[in-house]
Structure formats: C-alpha cells, structure tokens
Specification:
Radius of gyration: 13 Å
Number of strands: 10
Strand order of the largest sheet: 2-10-9-4-5-6
Strand content: over 45%
Number of helices: 0
Distance between the termini: 36 Å
Largest sheet: 6 strands, mixed
C-alpha cells in the first residue's frame, strides 16, 4: 500500500504548512499512519503517528508544533505544521504503520 504526500513548499521561519497524505485502494480507516521526514544524507525519522482509533504520538522535536489528524471519509491524513523552524527542512513522507512501502514525499523548506 502506497500513500502519497503533498502540500510541501517554501515557508519562512515561524510560518505554517499543512501536508496531506492520500490513500487509494484501501479501507483507510483500518490503518495507522505515520509521518516521516528525511534530511539529505540522514536517516528517515518518524515524527508523528495516528492509529486507526485516532490515538496520536509525536517526536519530541515537533511536539506542541505539529498536529496529525485524519479524515477517513476523505481517505486522507493531515499534518498541520506551525511555528516552523529551519531545522524542519526535509522531505516529508507518509506511510501505513508496519508497511515497508514508501510513496512519493513532499519537500518542505523553511527559510531563516
């Protein structure tokens, strides 16, 4: 199962973006989903997750600034990113938790 991330772009420090993660071909509400990010040359890290029941978890680096949510009717998971910092610059991916299948990411660039 592949999910496709979108909504990235260029934003100034302190700004906000909302990323979307779209699913197709699956009954989305049965799956937990994670948002990951990868800085060039570094490993891909899980930063936020939401279970099928709506329980959320966050990495310390984004806690209090990012919010993950899901709309099962729209087959979409969102990542609202506020108070963005230059160190948030990365390619962001979403993935079904437990799956090994990665879809296309979306680039977020935060300028100082």
């Amino acid at each position: 199962v592949q999910l496709q991330a979108s909504g990235g772009g260029l934003v100034q420090t302190g700004g906000s973006l909302r990323l979307s993660c779209a699913a197709s071909g699956i009954i989305f509400r049965f799956y937990g989903v994670g948002w990951y990010r990868q800085v060039l040359g570094k490993q891909r890290d899980l930063i936020a997750s939401i279970t099928s029941g709506g329980i959320t978890d966050y990495a310390d680096s984004v806690k209090g600034r990012f919010t993950i949510s899901r709309d099962n009717a729209e087959n979409t998971v969102y990542l609202q990113m506020n108070s963005l910092k230059p160190e948030d610059t990365a390619v962001y991916y979403c993935k079904v938790l437990g799956s090994e299948s990665w879809g296309r990411g979306t680039l977020v660039t935060v300028s100082s």
